[in-house]
Design goal:
- The complex is a heterodimer.
- Chain A is elongated.
- By secondary structure, chain A is α/β, with parallel strands linked by helices.
- Chain A has one domain: Rossmann fold (3-Layer(aba) Sandwich), CATH 3.40.50.700.
- Chain A is 32% helix and 19% strand.
- Chain B has 2 domains: 72 residues, Ubiquitin-like (UB roll) (Roll), CATH 3.10.20.740; 129 residues, Alpha-Beta Plaits (2-Layer Sandwich).
- In chain B, the strands form 3 sheets. A 5-stranded mixed β-sheet of chain B has the order 2-1-5-3-4, with helices on one face.
- Chain B starts with 16 loop residues before the first strand and ends in a 12-residue tail after the last helix.
- Classes of the chains: A alpha/beta, B alpha+beta.
- At the A-B interface, helix 5 and strand 7 of A face helix 3 of B.
């Protein structure tokens, strides 16, 4: 009997590994994700977090699901996004910025040098000697902010600014149950 | 395009003849288009550039339906008795979604920062077609915003070239304030003045052209978020509801 019990334990469904990151985003999607509130307790019966602002793990490991918030605005975003793609079986563009660039992409209508100059150099009220930061540790900004599907293959898209807690819950419930995620009309929003 | 229905010399007879739309009969008056008849019957065929008050122009192609296996825009094809029209099929809705995705990447459609969000026919139609992503690479075109008018502004980043403002200004307001210029990817909305500025035009806040825009390209000033997000037209209705099919 004991042998049977241990075999059952060994074949119990393993928890799915989930990694999350915010690239050129505002962490609003993460905040909305946490708004599932007590349902988090149900969720962690089925998943465990890998790299995420919630765990502070710095490097993404082998994962089942990767949730990407935000578009791609600098060289570090590209490296992190590619690492997520390489390590996550299912990659999800989460929120408006990951899907179409969102608010950060509104800088695309200006030349990058003009934007930096306006912020760090040209406007009134700056300290004498103010200049555009050029520390080599700072990731280089891309000329334009781009959505993540232009850099890596994306499996699913979860729209919203942010997606509501119910949208997160519906989407993850579908994924965990092995269904193709489909948002009910009331949960599909771009704003 | 199908042949026009035969006209009745006695004037406007009651609609008695029918065609089949997705398997259900729709009655129509002679000369009526498929979309106009469907709309009058409370049926939904997705559309953007069509409005019941204006002559159809068939440019957005979102209302494309199949008749006898051939595709055509329901807003320009005349209804014919006994015709079998397919509209709400997976294949046609997939085509419509692709058209919407192309419209989204071709302009700068950032719903979270748009005052029209929740009242926008483009957005509501994309919801209706279950559009979750934009699929293609973003153009991110650089287009001007014209805030020179005291009561109205034009943000051409959001213009989908439906020409409803052009038609409204010509047909109803009789001012011809708007026109379409350029061609190909450079096609754009024009203000018919030497300066090209809305502030130099005769347009007024009360004009039909000022309120006809189905997206957030022509907006009244000073009214931002008078109606909060969550309480707007398409928060309680869908684009398919009979009372909201035309947008504003």
């Amino acid at each position: 009997m004991n042998a049977t019990a241990s075999v059952d334990a060994a074949h119990a469904p393993r928890k799915l590994k989930v990694a999350t990151v915010s690239l050129a985003g505002c962490f609003g999607c993460h905040t909305s994700f946490l708004d599932i509130d007590l349902r988090l307790l149900d969720l962690i019966q089925h998943i465990e977090f890998d790299r995420s602002p919630l765990t502070d793990i710095k490097e993404v490991g082998q994962c089942d699901i990767g949730l990407i918030e935000g578009g791609v605005c600098n060289s570090e975003n590209v490296v992190v996004l590619r690492a997520f793609r390489a390590h996550c079986k299912t990659l999800v563009a989460t929120g408006a910025c990951a899907i179409n660039g969102g608010l950060p992409a509104e800088r695309n209508r200006f030349e990058l040098r003009d934007v930096l100059g306006e912020v760090y150099h040209d406007r009134e009220g700056l300290s004498p000697g103010s200049a555009i930061p050029n520390d080599p540790e700072l990731p280089l900004l891309l000329r334009q902010v781009r959505p993540i599907h232009e850099v890596v293959h994306v499996d699913y898209f979860l729209p919203g600014c942010p997606p509501s807690a119910d949208a997160f819950w519906s989407f993850l419930s579908d994924l965990l149950a092995g269904r193709t995620p489909r948002l009910a009309p009331a949960l599909l929003h771009y704003d | 395009m199908s042949a026009p229905a035969r006209s009745d010399p006695a004037g406007d007879p009651p609609a008695t003849e029918t065609f089949s739309l997705d398997g259900s009969p729709v009655s129509f008056a002679p000369g009526e288009t498929i979309l106009a008849a469907a709309r009058r019957a409370g049926r939904y065929i997705p559309h953007l550039c069509w409005h019941p008050d204006f002559a159809p122009q068939g440019s957005c192609r979102v209302c494309t339906v199949k008749v006898k296996g051939r595709s055509g825009s329901a807003c320009t094809m005349h209804a014919v008795a006994g015709e079998v029209v397919e509209s709400n099929t997976d294949a046609l809705n997939a085509d419509r979604k692709t058209l919407l995705q192309m419209l989204f990447v071709e302009g700068n459609h950032f719903c979270p920062s748009c005052e029209k969000s929740g009242n926008c026919l483009l957005q509501a139609t994309a919801y209706e077609m279950n559009m979750e992503d934009v699929r293609f690479e973003e153009f991110y075109p650089r287009r001007p915003v014209d805030a020179s008018h005291p009561d109205l502004l034009i943000d051409t980043n959001r213009c989908i070239l439906c020409e409803l403002c052009v038609r409204a200004s010509h047909d109803v307001d009789h001012k011809d304030v708007f026109a379409i210029g350029g061609n190909g990817t450079n096609t754009h909305l024009l203000v018919n003045r030497p300066s090209g500025k809305l502030g130099d035009s005769a347009v007024a806040l009360t004009d039909r052209a000022a309120s006809i825009c189905p997206v957030g390209a022509i907006l009244p000033k000073g009214r931002g978020f008078v109606v909060p997000i969550g309480e707007r037209r398409y928060d309680s209705h869908t684009a398919a509801d009979p009372e909201t099919q035309e947008g504003p």
